[in-house]
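Q: For a teaching handout, I want to show students what a protein-ligand complex looks like in token form. Below are the inputs, and the small molecule is pyridoxal-5'-phosphate. Please produce the holo structure.
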Amino acid sequence: MSNLTALPSIELLLNTPHILGVIQKYSQAETVAALRELISGLRSQLLAGDAVALPDFLSKDFAETVAQNIEAARMPSLRAVINATGVIIHTNLGRAPLAPLALQAMQDVALTPSNLEFDLETGMRGSRHVHVERLICELTGAQAALVVNNCAAAVLLSLMATSTGRNVIASRGELIEIGGSYRLPDVIAQSGATLREVGTTNKTRLSDYSNAIDDTTAVLLKSHTSNFRIVGFTSAPRRQELVELAAQTGTIVIEDLGSGVLIDLSPYGLDDEPVVADIIRSGVDLVMFSGDKLLGGPQAGIIAGTKVLIEKLKSHPLMRAVRPDKTTLAALDATLRLYKAPFDPIREIPVLAMLAEPFEAVTIRAKQAAEGITKLGFTDIKVQDTTAQVGAGAMPERGLPSVAVSCRIEGISPNELAAKLRQNKIPIIGRIERGRVLLDMRTIKDADLSHIIAAFQSLKVP
Ligand SMILES: *Cc1c(COP(=O)(O)O)cnc(C)c1O
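A: Here is the structure, written as tokens, with pyridoxal-5'-phosphate included.
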């Protein structure tokens, strides 16, 4: 307790020579805030009865700590990191990175007014939906389309507009949970519809659906079991069969696709991902997918389907609560344009480029990184074949061949090394495998290499 008197007042500290230097370099307000935080931290430790080594408040070192705290406070909480995890669409790291042209489009409408809801021809109020609808229709073959904040909102809106107070039939093999709080049965319940489960976990027949249909049935709901596979003794009716059944019974088919793919990605190993245009062609009434998964755009939920249903969704009271903002629409529009001539989406869309990058090219990057780090004097840095993941639920049981820089540093545990890389000015996020820190080179850009090497350089200074 008595030690508390050893803590100087803020007033006093502000007039010490080194702290005056800090004020000069930063500002009075920031310096006061940093000092308050430091002193109150020390006070709590003393009050808790901890053994505290008090700093020399007059020292240059103490002023340096204050300056560092100010620098840290100036840093935004949400900032860029280097994704060396090998998971291409990493939900915790912000999912799809945008193409530069998509960013440009966001900037163009963010810094100045735009025709978001203004018809330039008539000079009258317009609709924000028109800007991307035609492009989505062109790329998917759908009659109409709508964009909302994310795929979860797309599913909720679609169910509310079609099924509130009625039944939704879904296979027990497709009642999915996708990370966090998205569980399909709960979303159905929130929509005011009643879930009618049919079939079993591994087998659901067309007759299971047809036996369950009655005059309370509104929707046959299909969901992409994106993040798991049921293999072996399994069966499910084909999409086309469900569509025919729906037509015969006056119901509709809705498909929650999750990761929406606009082009065939089977040449790159993704043969299980259905292409949206194929689903629309099979006659599904509404399909919904994310903008920031394999599509490679901004966070958004895209709903494509029949004109009648999309119109119904557009005029639903929930629409206003889930509508996208102008920068999202701009980025989505720009991303979708990259799927059309003169562009090659595989080259222009970062997610697809990472997916399609030849193993040899990844290997070259890994060798460059390992060489750069080894040159600094580290002796146990290797190039190691590994497996990257698509992420966002795609291809959960198979990975993509990849290459990592595998690092071990004398005197630093793998956990410590991983933590130090995370504390880098641009945090570097890797993974630990068998006592080594792995930096996967499929998910980083060439431009990240210099940052990674610089991070190791700074590890050398004690
Ligand atoms: C990811 C996913 C969702 C949720 O999409 P968000 O864009 O994250 O809201 C819904 N359904 C499926 C099948 C998914 O894979």
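A: Two things your students might notice: Residues 28-47 form the longest helix (20 residues). The chain has a mean pLDDT of 94.
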